[in-house]
Structures are given as structure tokens and as C-alpha cells.
Amino acid sequence: MxxxxxxxxxxxxxxxxxxxxxxxxxxxxxxxxxxxxVLDAFANPEELAYGRSGLPRVRLYRVRFRQLxxxxxxxxxxxxxxxxxxxxxxxxxxxxxxx
Amino acid sequence: MRAHHxxxxxxxxxxxxxxxxxxxxxxxxHALLWLLTRRGIMTVDELRRGIESLGAAEYDRxxxxxxxxxxxxxxLLQKGVLTTDELGRKLAEVxxxxxxxx
Lengths: 99, 102
Hints:
The structure holds 2 protein chains of 2 kinds.
Chain A: E1 10-13, E2 32-42, H1 45-48, E3 58-66, H2 67-70, E4 81-87, E5 91-93
Antiparallel strand pairs in A: 1-2, 1-5, 2-3, 3-4
Chain B: H1 24-38, H2 44-52, H3 56-61, H4 64-79, H5 84-99
């Protein structure tokens, strides 16, 4: 079981491509960001997608990524970010240092 | 591996933002899903799973609400809310109705 995270924690999104319905966009998998805020816990959509209860509920986090980290050819401002809401089981403590 | 429907960040070209009127069947499809989720018969996550498992060619071929109704149909068949035979007969009846000269 993954540890819970808190606002300000650096987290890395697991790199996985399971079949079924997942809410973690491909473009953030393997990427590192910062927990912007801790959200509520929700029934797991990956289980709900198959008609099951989705319980126990899974913690959702809003994670902020630097656009420059996600897109090598990003043309916008260097400080631009994007927030993505990600369930806890997709997150691990950050493996890499701040760039 | 990126799933076919997971388009975030891919080049997309210009986006057509003009509003268009929804056909009555599209509104009914939306209402149908709402009723099915409110009554606990299926979840929006099941809808999405069905859409995301259509396969690339079918995903691209179908329109937005065509994906919805296809996914809803398969989910209801799987759950036994509808049977294939029941649905086949009803569809034939509707086709017959439309073919009949008015």
C-alpha cells in the first residue's frame, strides 16, 4: 500500500498501461510533479468500470506538473504548469531531484 | 503504450468550436445514461470503459453519441437488462416501420 501524500510532496506517476479503464492520462505517466492539494477519497473508477463497488475508496490528489517537463518542445512560458487529478495508487514518492 | 482514446498532447490541428444542434436521439441517449446511472444500473465508468474498448477503427468511425449508445447497449446486454434476441427483434420492428411507405 502506498503511503499517503501531502501538499508540497514531490511525486512520480507510475509508468503502467493496464487494460481496462484508467483515469491517469498517458502524458503524465513516469513524470514527476508536486502535490498541489489533497482531495477527497472516491470509489475507484477502475473497479466501477467493471460494475463493481470500487470500495474501499481511493484518495485523489491534484498534482502540478511543469509544462516544460511534459513537453520537450513546449513553446509557452517557462513557469507554465498543468494540474492533473490522480488517484493514490498511481503515485510514488519522487525518484528524481528537482531539475 | 498509449491507448487510442488517450489523445492528450497529440497534434490535433484546429478545433471546430461552432455549436451544433443535437439530434433528438442524441438527447435521448444522454437522458438514458443519466437514468441508468441514477438507478444504479450502470456507471459512467462502465460507459467509458465500453467506449475505450471499441477498438481504434470503430472509435474513429463512430460519432460522440454513437460511441455512447454502442457502449450502453453492450453494457446492458452483458448485465442481462436486455437480451440479444429482444434487441434484434425490436431493431427489426423499427427498421420495418421506417421502410413502410407513409
